[in-house]
Amino acid sequence: MRITELIRISFRALTANKRRSLLTMLGIVIGITSVVTIMALGNGIKAATLKNLQTDQSGQQTAEITFLPESSTASTAGFKEDDVDLAYQTAPDKIKKVTIKHEKERLQLNGQLANQDTMLSATLVTSMPKVQLAAGNKLTTDSLQTDGHDVLLSKKLAKKVFHGNAAALTSSIFIGKRSYNIVGIFNTPKESYSALDVDVLIPEKAYTAGQLNPGGQKLAITFQRGSDISQLANAIVRQLKKSGTERRNGSYQYFDYGELLKGIGNVISGLTLFVGAIASISLLIAGVGVMNMMYISASERSQEIGIRMAVGATPAEIMKQFLLESVMLTLTGGVVGLVLGGLIAWMITAF
User: Fold this and answer.
1) How far apart are CA 306 and CA 297, in angstroms?
2) Which residue of 82, 140, 150, 196 is surrounded by the most CB atoms within 10 Å?
């Protein structure tokens, strides 16, 4: 029997019981669609995550080099304008911009309270922070916009050092060589690691004016697209260690995200494969459904099989017909599932 004749007979047999054929094919469609969608989403999430970690909010490739002073009480700021020029000279054709970055939150400063040297955590503010005052006054607009001397002290530190708010409000705090007046006592926020969970809140302009060594704690570098960030950043670190302005007072470090990104990518890929494997169980169930349908179909069509064998059909030809029917079911369901899965993945990424 010719293959075209087999296809015609198989198609007629499947359409004779459309509901059963469609329900059997539906299992394959659902299985294929779920696997394709999950794998596409997993790969998309992996690519987006790695891209976001390699770029800043504007989509540019950036890196940060940090200066770590040898002493926690060192007065150096770490980076100066000469370091900016040095970074540019390392790879002028690969670097778009180099800026000195000033930390503003949870700074560790060497200060003096009640004639006692102490390490203070501080956050620089440009407006009155949203804190609850326990005593004293808020920071005024004048003190925030000029290089004034007013600061807010935490209630916790006021109690520890001055044994009360009243004594703290009549005292001063020394940071570096600059004296600041304590004008208010604020309650420490309940949230741990908050930018306001510090010992002292200092107006940014006042702090900058009081710095003995203007500069910053980090060097932010923006590279040209397609640059090898890890290689270039490490080259800049080596150059800073040789000729950096503060090379004798500390060390320069760059955290290489390459291994971190590789690990994150492996984790996401593993999770995608795991979830995809679970979803593929539905394909196994759908396959069993096709087997069950063909078994029932063969049982119900025993009279048809007998008539065909009586007119000369061989067992091999009858077997080919049933195999062709199952192939047509699974192939049609697979194509529909692939199309639906791709369409769903595209819609999710588009919106």
Assistant:
1) 14
2) 150
| pLDDT per position as a tens digit, 236-275 | 999 989 988 888 878 888 877 666 777 777 888 888 888 8
Neighbour tally for 33: CB within 10 Å: 23
How far CA 58 is from CA of 52, 74, 222, in Å, comes to 10, 34, 11
Tell me if residue 222 falls in helix, strand or coil: strand
- 79 inside domain: no
190 part of a folded domain:
yes
φ/ψ of residue 104, rounded to 5: -120, -15
- Range from 59-63, 130-134, 281-285, 299-303 carrying the lowest mean pLDDT: 59-63
Residue numbers of the domain that contains 304: 3-51+261-350
Q: Does one domain contain both 40 and 122?
A: no
pLDDT digits (tens, 9 = 90+) for 154-180: 998 898 888 888 888 988 888 877 889
Give pLDDT tens digits for 52-85: 666 655 557 788 888 876 754 454 567 888 888 9
Question: Is residue 225 one of the residues assigned to a domain?
Answer: no
Question: How many domains is the chain partitioned into structurally?
Answer: 2
Q: At 130, give phi and psi (nearest 5°).
A: -85, 75
Tell me: do 202 and 267 sit in the same domain.
no
For residue 48, what are its two tokens? 């987006």
Among 35, 90, 22, 345, CA closest to 232: 90
Beta strand extents in 276-324 (DSSP E only): none
Edge-to-edge, what's the strand order for the sheet holding 95-101? 95-101, 218-223, 61-69, 250-254
Q: Which of 97, 122, 246 is nearest to 186 (CA)?
A: 122
